[in-house]
Amino acid sequence: MKRVVLTTIILVFGTDGARAGPQAAQCSSFYISEITLVSTANGEAGHVQTFVGFGPSKEEAEKSALGWCSHIRFDLETCLNSDRLTARNSPSDGDGAALHLKYMKAVARITGCS
Question: Which domain of life is it from (predicted)?
Answer without folding.
Answer: Bacteria
